[in-house]
Amino acid sequence: MDDNFLYQLREKPDPEFVKNLYRKLSQNHSELDRREKMNNHTFIRSKGLLWIAALLVIVIITMTAISPVRAFVSSLITKIAGLSFIVNENYPGDMISGDEEIIEPQILTVGEALALFPYDIYLPSYIPSGYVLNDNVRVYVGDTAGPFANSIVLNWRSSGEMSYILRITDQNDRDREIIAPDSSIENIILDDNHSAVLIRGGWDVDTQSWNNDFGLRIKWLVDNLTYDLMGADREQLIEIALSTIK
Q1: For the whole model, what pTM was predicted?
Q2: pLDDT tens per residue, range 16-68
Q3: Residue 2 domain-assigned?
Q4: In degrees, to the nearest 5, what angle opens at C-alpha 176 toward C-alphas 168 and 220?
Q5: Bridge partner list, 154
Q6: Which of 80, 91, 103, 147 could make a disulfide contact with 197, Cβ separation 3.0–4.6 Å?
Q7: What is the rounded CA–CA span in Å between residue 82 and residue 68?
Q8: Domain span at residue 223?
Q9: Do residues 55 and 115 both lie within one domain?
Q10: In a domain, 9, yes or no
């Protein structure tokens, strides 16, 4: 007996069953293809990110190995109370190249200085008792004043050695001050429209480092003019600054 009867008795599959089976097989194949493509894409993207990270590390190492670039990277420009500061751990005198130039101010009376100065300024209406405005005012105007152009310096002295020194200049990028990272800077709110920055200390020429014992200064803006007041008492500095705001 042969086995032809097995084929002769075989029933033809249901058409709907065949259709469903083909659809499931096609879906499984498509899913496998999709997963393979995703894995390949993820591998390529991860490999690309690794190359970018490695490149950034090389660039950073190269930049910090070059002294001028390292000095630039270590600097930070910040803005407080509308005033720009450069935070740098290096003594600013090291950044000055070339011969030194001595610029002499004009020494005038208060009235003459205010008349010559190209801007209207507000003198403090409050000064602690015992302090008198010195009638010798330093004024820097004109092309010969160089980087000090359009600035005026007033001095209130007491019977002792203490004094308040106020410098007023037009707001400009040249007035961007260099301060040390460890300098004590405090943002002071004067009123709803004005704020100030309190700076403790200054650069020591002898040690070429920042010295927090070099007194106090407060800086603020009035009508695009920078007011820079030096003194010894924090609360009095704030009161004097407030008295210039109209």
Answers
A1: 0.65
A2: 654 554 555 455 555 555 555 555 555 445 545 545 544 444 444 444 444 44
A3: no
A4: 45
A5: 166
A6: 80
A7: 28
A8: 76-95+104-242
A9: no
A10: no
